[in-house]
Amino acid sequence: MRILIKGAGVTGLTAAYALARRGLQVEVSERCALPGPGASHCAGGMLAPWCEGETAPDRVVEAGKLSIDWWTDVLPHLVRRNGTLVVAPARDTQELERFANRTSHFKWLGEDEIARLEPALSGRFRRGLFFPGEAHLDPRSALAGLYEKLLEHGVTFHFNAPEHPEAGFSKVVDCTGKTAIRSGSGLRGVRGEMLHLRTPDIRLSRPVRLLHPRFPLYVVPQSNRRFMVGATMIESENEGAISARSLMELLNAAYALHPAFGEAEVLETASGIRPAYADNIPAAHGTGKHISINGMYRHGYLMAPALAEELAEWLVQSHHALEAAQ
Are residues 202 and 75 in the same domain? Predict the structure, then answer.
């Protein structure tokens, strides 16, 4: 089988890897000049299935659990399995109870336990939830790592190729994300905004979610005292720079987590359009030659590996069945 993957974001790269390591001939076309464009480049890289279970169905939680092992197997040096800490300001402690009622696989922590887990937050929060089974990775390093592994597997890339010819391919898998948003696709755009801060005054070992009645905030530690702060959820397909309101809300929330963020260096602000179906559940669709994997919403790194493996298994089994019939 000769497979064409359209799109070199996290969805396309994971699909290509799942197929290539089963021995299939894979080529990837991408309209941009480099792999990992768009929302994949701006993600937080949290592998947090149980936290996402607050609003997501069991399908996302179960796929997310598998994806933690997938990323650990493929890029073990990038995955940090340190769990997730969830806290709330004193005035919003009822948000912790609400979050706990909608999730599972956590431990309640008191003030002293929070301080032992994250010394930088000592004395700042009286109660918290710790999800020990969760993990995170640096999304940009993950995209680069997947790209290198795909080259090692002999996968061919076609960059700056928005309309790569489909002739000669057994299957075409569309993983183009927001590009696929059009009339009749069932997809809508959800705008996410984020920023990167750097400060030598704070050290965190895991993602920290700060609960808020209006919007969720998370701070994800990366290398070199860099922190990703995100993310807004705006029902909009309008692209562009981060809005002033979102920037102020993100900075205010980061400051609420720790005042030292008020002195942090702002390295980057960005926004991206995340495609989503009506139920916010990523899915694979298609018959015949063309297949689509899309609707990643806020679950790209969490669900892309599971969908990729399902696709690969289905294609291999279908190919074997066709060979047997002949």
Answer: no
What is the CB-side half-sphere exposure of residue 68 using CA atoms within 13 A?
Answer: 19
Q: At what angle do helices 10-20 and 300-325 cross, to 10 degrees?
A: 40
Q: How confident is the model at residue 100 (pLDDT cuts 50, 70, 90)?
A: very high
Domain of 26 in residue numbering reads as 1-81+135-186+278-326
Residues 53, 193 within the same domain: no
pLDDT digits (tens, 9 = 90+) for 265-275: 999 998 889 99
pTM of the complete model beyond 0.85: yes
Cis peptide bond upstream of 231, omega within 30: yes
- Among 292, 323, 315, 324, smallest CA distance to 12 is for 292
* C-alpha triplet 54, 58, 59: angle, nearest 5°: 125
Those residues whose C-beta lies under 8 Å from the C-beta of residue 15, and which sit 6 or more positions away, are 5, 173, 175, 293, 304, 307, 308, 311, 312
If asked whether residues 150 and 231 sit together in one domain, one would say no
User: Which pLDDT score, from 0 to 100, does residue 239 have?
Assistant: 78
Helix, strand and coil content of the chain, in percent to the nearest 5, comes to 40, 25, 40
Judge contact between 201 and 260, C-beta under 8 A: yes
End-to-end CA distance of the chain: 15
Instruction: Kindly report the three-state secondary structure assignment for every residue of 231-248.
Output: CCCECCCCCCCCCHHHHH
Task: Count CB neighbours of 172 within 10 A.
Answer: 18
178 in Cβ contact with 39 (< 8 Å): yes
Provide the token pair at 34. Answer: 């480099």
